[in-house]
Amino acid sequence: MEGGVSKADRTEFTECWRTSWKTPYIMRLSLSAGIGGLLFGYDTGVISGALLYIRDDFPSVDKKTWLQETIVSMAVAGAIIGAAVGGWMNDRFGRKKAILVADFLFFVGAIVMAMAPTPWVIIIGRIFVGLGVGMASMTAPLYISEASPARIRGALVSTNGLLITGGQFLSYLINLAFTKAPGTWRWMLGVAGVPAVVQFVLMLSLPESPRWLYRKNKIDEATAILERIYPSPDHVKEELEALRQSVETEKADEASLGDGSIFMKVRNAWGNDVVRRGLYAGITVQVAQQFVGINTVMYYSPTIVQLAGFASNKTALALSLITSGLNAVGSIVSMLFVDRYGRRRMMLISMIGIIVCLIVLSIMFFAAAAHAPTISRYESTHFGGNSTCSSYVAAPDASSWNCMSCLKASSDCAFCANGDNKYHPGACLSATKEIKTACKAQHRMWYTNGCPSKFGILAVLLLGLYIISYSPGMGTVPWIVNSEIYPLRYRGIGGGMAAVSNWCSNLVVSESFLSLTEALGSAGTFLLFAGFSFIGLIAIFWLVPETKGLPIEEVEKMLEKGFNPIKKKKMKSSENGGSA
Predict the structure, then answer these.
(1) For residue 322, which phi and psi values (nearest 5 degrees)?
(2) How far apart are the C-alpha atoms of 209 and 418, rounded to whole Å?
(3) Is the pTM of this model over 0.85?
(4) How big is the CA angle at 144 (ends 90 and 7), to the nearest 5 degrees?
(5) Predicted pLDDT of residue 253
């Protein structure tokens, strides 16, 4: 899944390095907590490559797309629960204990998956890891934010966001490293247990969040920690005073919201005009972030590369590394430009780029399917009569079949490419291990997802362009918008509702992608996402205001009046005309 990155300008990053060099304790504290972000990114990325080899080991997974989708998406389902439990645990037991519990869940999940004898045990392990991901996604940025000097807080929290995309990139590298190792996917999934143990050990030697301690009236302990973070007694006094004011304001805000249940607080939020308009904007950008299809690329990118015509698992993983690297680069670009060009403009430009890429990708996949190699009856009986796919044998129009017809006919069918030229007519065979081995023994390529295609490399380049369009805008900006759009006293409940909408949308997309490619084909699926993206573009244009550089009070006033982009443009043009 995509994580949030708090805004920080270049001056803040320079100050961050200077302060960390003078006080290494701050960097140790932030990086130790930031391993949670690395684990978050690693786990969302590693399944994309591991799934290729899980399918090889378990024929039931290879033939049932819903089982593949469940293996991928159960981590997202676990994350939804983990985020909810993590919020409660953060408040009740503290940030440090929540991170330790997340590490324990990561470790248990990694070991369960690595030793899984059946697909259902992998799914159980994925749920455990998902619980850890959900808790880490909430707790790591919070801990870093509360245990960092105010002047470099944004830069350090942004570092956590970079570690998420860095973890995704690392997962692709590790997937590639274990392609020849015995147990392949078991190593890929099991390695996640190592950083979890490292973080667990490091966190044992680190303190609790000073803000949480102050809130629990453990003022002496909070002061002792602040003395290690800030170099001078004056800074410590200033931070203690800021903590006192912040905690008092927070308690007053909580009292104004009432002590009712979470459902009562949600109802009150929707009943407030300003908050409701903020939620329209916040939830819109979070749902749009998922329905552009980004996590289908992050979870299934090697599979998508195979759909584009690259049969080799290793080649698919190597090409997928490009998308992950571009995603990490895009996060850096966003941090450099979001305060210059504004949140709204970056999202609108991002959405236009995404729609164009998805439409062209759809056309590319349609052309690849139309020009797929034909099926030769001679080639199909070359390995013996019993090796030919039964669906091909029984088809009345078998003479018009091509590779794509063969793969779509049944999950029991596979395409064995021509030995002289993979673009020449090939064989439609039964998808068994024995026949796959016989096909490869003759130095032929074996296809179960996509077909040999001259358009394959163009599809991979378009995936790269899609990531470049997505990452600087829709990748990071929705999280920034949600940190700015709500009145202060509703920020927790508003941000929580938007985050839940993000996770739920992620679950829907990741659980349905492969089924959609089966039902609509790759071209139809990407065209569907282009349609969703167009709806998202319209919704963002009408519902999401610009919050760049606006104080909280100004955002409230703007939402109180109601946001109208057409009216706002007319007002700007009349102001410019008047000044002229």
Answers:
(1) -60, -45
(2) 63
(3) no
(4) 115
(5) 66
